[in-house]
Design a protein that fits this description.
434 Repressor (Amino-terminal Domain); 85 residues; 61% helix; single chain; mainly alpha
Length: 85
């Protein structure tokens, strides 16, 4: 995969961190481990780990699967993020 010509602005990286924290918080509230969430969502555990640690942005399909596995709406994962500047 080719690398980006320009790095992401800081606010994008901040949102990635906030999203990862929200996934982790909702997972804990559901009483699930990363393995448990991965099994329920049908995604790789390493993907969950990368999303929570803000290493990678989740695909829209993965976000939908994760939200469904947690029994929440996808907007609940995105709601605590700051609006764009």
């Amino acid at each position: 995969m080719p690398s980006r010509r320009n790095p992401y602005p800081a606010w994008i990286l901040e949102r990635r961190v906030a999203l990862g924290q929200q996934i982790a918080e909702q997972r804990r509230l559901a009483g699930l481990s990363q393995d448990g969430l991965a099994d329920r969502a049908g995604v790789d555990r390493r993907s969950i780990q990368r999303y929570e640690n803000a290493v990678r942005d989740p695909r829209v399909a993965d976000l939908l699967l994760i939200a469904d596995a947690l029994g929440i709406h996808v907007t609940d994962l995105l709601r605590d993020q700051a609006p764009p500047r």
